[in-house]
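Deliverable D2.4 — example input (structure tokens):
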């Protein structure tokens, strides 16, 4: 027997229109000025946009209490090595390995500072300082990106003595400071101790002092 075949037509059903917000679980790991929440519009005629997340991008003037919370002071003592650059565009490089304390953050920690001086005297010195807590149970790790002027911010040997904190390094910063922001200065003092026989690198002792304002989204505000 021949079975009758029913003709069928596709049916398009109306779908409820929704605007989807991206998840904030864990918070965006971006510097303060980049803390944005993506808003995607699925309704025809609406365009995608970005809105500021006030946790990572607060607006207005901080209270006196907040300014006190953001005060960041640290001191470290260690050794430095100063040598020739790694590439043709570098006149020298400097590395400091030290230990010390960050007030109200950790009592025993380490600081590794590395800076590069370009051969072009019009270009700024650039580098980074990475602070780590010796207590492995505490995840706080803080990285500052640094810049300095080749003429105004160095001593007679060309070593930087004053470095400006450009921002937090998002790749190396973790814990309560992830997604935050920073501004301030890093001051360095040197005590020469001779010249290494290896590639003529100068060595000696160094002290580091950090005075900054650091906004930490994950830090308890009370």
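Example output (designed residues):
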């Amino acid at each position: 027997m021949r079975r009758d075949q029913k003709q069928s037509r596709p049916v398009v059903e109306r779908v409820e229109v929704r605007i989807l917000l991206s998840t904030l679980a864990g918070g965006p790991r971006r510097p303060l000025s980049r803390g944005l929440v993506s808003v995607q519009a699925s309704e025809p005629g609406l365009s995608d946009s970005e809105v500021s997340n006030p946790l990572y991008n607060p607006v207005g003037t901080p209270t006196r209490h907040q300014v006190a919370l953001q005060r960041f002071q640290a001191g470290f003592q260690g050794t430095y090595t100063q040598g020739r650059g790694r590439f043709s565009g570098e006149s020298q490089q400097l590395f400091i390995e030290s230990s010390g304390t960050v007030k109200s953050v950790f009592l025993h920690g380490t600081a590794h500072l590395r800076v590069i001086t370009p051969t072009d005297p019009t270009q700024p010195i650039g580098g980074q300082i990475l602070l780590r807590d010796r207590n492995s149970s505490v995840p706080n790790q803080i990285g500052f990106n640094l810049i300095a002027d080749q003429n105004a911010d160095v001593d007679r040997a060309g070593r930087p003595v004053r470095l400006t904190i450009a921002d937090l390094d998002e790749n190396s910063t973790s814990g309560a400071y992830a997604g935050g922001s920073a501004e301030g200065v890093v001051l360095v003092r040197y005590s020469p101790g001779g010249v290494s026989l290896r590639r003529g690198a100068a060595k000696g002792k160094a002290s580091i002092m950090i005075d900054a304002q650091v906004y930490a989204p994950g830090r308890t505000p009370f």
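Confidence is low (pLDDT under 50) at residues 17-43.
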